[in-house]
């Protein structure tokens, strides 16, 4: 039996798939859901059979944000002392690639959770938004920062100031998502990505993820230095010898990690 009530965890080949599963509340991110999510992410990250993690919702919603019912009576300073957003950042500690597969609403904290993942694959039905301003608050899980870095100041400012939602197509044009696929192909496409990643060298994959994410944190010169150290250190792995030998011998590489 699953230890979880608000998420479903399954394996699809080398992918660990987490489905947010509170459909009646459009997967609103209440404390229990985020605690379960943090637990499942850590378990899949530790499972050697899992190459990548897919985080998804259902057809109607990835997640419609933090749980407004639960937040309504939160007060300061108690809410400051017990930061209810902090556990969401569990996704940032995962070392394997995390793919957000978004169909339907990704609003407020839902959009922010998707942006904490390494990449967003969007169904054509996806809608992204930061509507917190309509509630008398502002984004609180990185929306004002990650959305701005992803799509630029004017677009982010318009969304955060007015709460306007973006379609999947607009999100694609703005660079928020990696690709848009028909809704029926969302999970199969995400699993294909995980399957490809599973054939690659695990240390190279881990360093690639860390290096790209560092572009959000570091000044350019420091980011390039980090990349160079990772790049040169990979020449110490048997997988580098195997990958280059396989290329020159015109055969598929068999990476061992
Ligand atoms: N929290 C709690 N419950 C939510 C919810 C949320 N964020 N979003 C939707 N629900 C609930 C609704 O209350 C409703 O429950 P009942 O059936 O019990 O009334 C159910 O989900 C279905 O929602 P709707 O009837 O509203 O569905 P709709 O199709 O008419 O509208 C929607 C869909 C446009 C997404 C609308 O639900 C909506 O605007 N939701 C709120 C979005 C929002 O404001 N998100 C930001 C939250 S704040 C935040 O996230 C803070 C942060 O940055 C950390």
Notes on the protein architecture:
With 257 residues, the protein is α/β, with parallel strands linked by helices. It is 42% helix and 16% strand. The chain contains eleven helices and ten strands. It has helices at residues 31-46, 68-71, 78-81, 109-116, 143-151, 153-162, 168-174, 186-198, 202-214, 220-233, 238-248, and strands spanning 7-12, 15-20, 52-56, 61-63, 98-102, 105-107, 119-123, 127-129, 166-167, 179-181. The strands form two sheets. Strands 1-2-3-5-7-10 form a six-stranded mixed beta sheet, sandwiched between helices. It has a four-stranded mixed beta sheet with strand order 4-6-8-9. Strand 2 (15-20), helix 1 and strand 3 form a beta-alpha-beta unit. Helix 5 packs antiparallel against helix 6 (153-162) and helix 9 (202-214) runs antiparallel to helix 10 (220-233). It is globular and about 65 Å long. The two termini are 33 Å apart. The mean pLDDT is 97. Acetoacetyl-coenzyme A is lined by residues 25-26, 28, 64-69, 85, 105, 107-109, 112, 131-132, 135, 139-141, 143. Residues 25-26, 28, 64-69, 85, 105, 107-109, 112, 131-132, 135, 139-141, 143 line the site of acetoacetyl-coenzyme A.
